[in-house]
């Protein structure tokens, strides 16, 4: 899908072009297939000259493209140039020294794990392997998991390290939909879920419960509502000021403590520590389960070394 980013420089003329309802109708028609001006004029019930003027204004801001094609003689045919328009409400000049990369990983693409029952992997249409059997976590089909759960243990993911040489990391963050793991579900079921980045313990978050009884917006119909349905979307962020969970400081671990440049990968581990006060397990959701259409997302902001 071709996207048109709007910045402060091109926003005004494009918005002016889109402010006319007839021109929006033209874009709708062209999104179905290319048309010449005569065809557009007939469908809009407008004079040829008026239609041509609207087409010309859309051409000037690059929303459509018009080409000469052979037909009954040579005719001009217009086609839509973009499928989506995205507005960037920030000044690009202020971002020139900062770079950013985002990588999403399926929840079944963990490289290492150690789990105890209750545990299991769930795909979009059925269980993967056998419920409450830790051996199922090594099934080759685990990459298709949309929900994984365990009462005790951990899963570890390794993201590719794509930080360019000669650059330094300012901030790294991970986000995932997660909650506690209780038999069936239990809203009041605290669990201390700890994260590690590059084998360094970063922070512990206490999940308040295991959420069910009301179907998650993405949870498939075959999954019973008396089981876990959705989690909470959490973000773990580390920069030079410390580690933050949902923008609240959670520990004094800083970006320098992670030694990102010393590893060929970026490891992210979630689990329950052996000495956790609340050992309430963990559910981890993929893009087709729960309320958020994502797996585990890593975002890194970096800049050129001064």
UniProtKB/TrEMBL annotation:
**Top-level lineage group:** Bacteria
Identification of the protein by name: Transcriptional regulator
Asked if the keyword Transport belongs to this entry, the reply reads no
Which InterPro entries does the record associate with it? ArsR-like_HTH, HTH_ArsR_DNA-bd_dom, Metal_resp_trans_reg, WH-like_DNA-bd_sf, WH_DNA-bd_sf
Q: Where is the HTH arsR-type domain?
A: 10-91
Q: Which UniProt keywords apply?
A: DNA-binding, Transcription, Transcription regulation
What Gene3D superfamilies does the annotation carry?
A: Winged helix-like DNA-binding domain superfamily/Winged helix DNA-binding domain
The UniProt entry, under CDD domains, shows: HTH_ARSR
One of the entry's Gene Ontology molecular-function terms is: DNA-binding transcription factor activity
SMART domains, A to Z: HTH_ARSR (SM00418)
